[in-house]
Amino acid sequence: MESTDDVAEGKILLAEYDRLKEEQKTRIGFRDNLLYFTLAAATAVVAITAQSGQPGLLLSIPAICLILGWTYLVNDEKISAIGCYVCDRLGPRLEELTATQGTVFGWEIYHRNVAGRTTRKRLQTAVDLFTYMVLPMVCTTAFWCSPVVQPLLLLASLGQTLALAVLGWQFLCRRERQH
Fold first, then answer.
1. Of these four, 61, 87, 92, 160, which has the most CB atoms within 10 Å of its CB?
2. How far apart are CA 45 and CA 41, in angstroms?
3. Which residues contact 100 (CB under 8 A, 6 or more apart)?
């Protein structure tokens, strides 16, 4: 028989679940919009560079991609952490309180086991790497090939290249850690 304390704790856990799912939904929308915003910003910079004839402007694309790519990665990590917390902590605690047979919050596990998920995750990683690594490196290479490479901007571009390599490595490590 459930005690009043168990019912109260169950309500608190369900309220926590609702708030976490709301945060997760908000983060998913924000993360997905970062991808579109990054591509729009890069397109705008390329257009301005082409019109102005100043190849140094291309170096703003790696900076944009680094900032937005890191933000994308952090949000993605939080989205996954919420799902893991629901599966590993909230679900089992509610199962215990309610003596439920089977998994509470089954969707959190079910959607990870659907056919084609591994392929979709790999394709998403490829899109992420293209957007946040390949695209800025193409712009950096275009800058390097321009006739007006200034030493200070060259040094800045080398620092950006190193930072992009770290970001790319983080995307790859993140893919390996996902459930």
1. 61
2. 6
3. 94
Contact yes or no for 103/86 (Cβ under 8 A)? no
* Structure token pair of residue 147: 């006739």
Closest to 2 measured CA to CA, from 92, 100, 87: 100
| pLDDT tens digits in sequence order for the chain, 179 residues long | 456 666 788 888 899 999 999 999 999 999 999 999 999 999 999 999 999 999 999 999 999 999 999 999 999 999 999 998 998 898 888 888 887 777 777 777 777 777 888 898 899 999 999 999 999 999 999 999 999 889 999 999 999 999 999 999 999 998 766 54
> Token pair for residue 173?
């490590």
